[in-house]
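2-dehydro-3-deoxy-D-gluconate 5-dehydrogenase KduD
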Amino acid sequence: MKLLEGKTVLVTGASAGIGRAAAIGAARHGADVVINFSRDEAGAASAVAEIEALGQRGLSVKGDVSDPATARDFIAQAVDAFGKVDAFVNNAGICPFHAFLDMPVETFERTMRVNLHGAYFMVQAAANQMVKQGHGGAIVAVSSISALVGGEYQTHYTPTKAGLHSLMQSTAIALGKYGIRCNSVLPGTILTDINKDDLADMDKRERMAARIPLGRLGQPDDLEGPIVFLASDLAKYVTGASLLVDGGAFVNLQ
């Protein structure tokens, strides 16, 4: 059963990691997919190739999500190519680990601009297109377990993920009358480029895995199913919700 048959799905930050897994998962479930990326030309090209190998149409659009104009351009190019936007996945994000007391202003502001401001304008642009189309839609934000717990070297990052979680709750209310559902996924520790340096220490990696009831750190494709579900009509009465995808880490804090 293909859960996204005939739909057009857009994913930001999809040249690697969770975004790439979500994009390819959407194609596996019958969607045409448009991906946003900022720098990794080769990664974006190979993601589109995988989408097309699954028999779906794929398109990559380069752009820095911290610039509000990127959101308008991304949506416009997707509509020009495939005619509509049925589901939008906001995934693009950064986490340059740094201590709190000497956090550089630019590091803080760049993280805010990419993770939170970028998400706001991307979601707004996608929602406007969905309202214009008149047949509803689904928006899924990739938040984080960091929306719920702190991190010593993530004082600039965790507020952005809490903000994404909150944004989905508020947009669920604002957009419900248009048939647009807004939900978030909250991944735990997923092995992606965003944390590869932090997890290069194998002892630390093993300690973190040992705290997870399912006994391992996450992989990007662990998010594929939850995101596809929330984007699909199987979740037609789910909005304003958040889904932890963390192997049980959050409930094992004692």
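thats it. The two ends are 40 Å apart (CA to CA). The mean pLDDT is 95. bye
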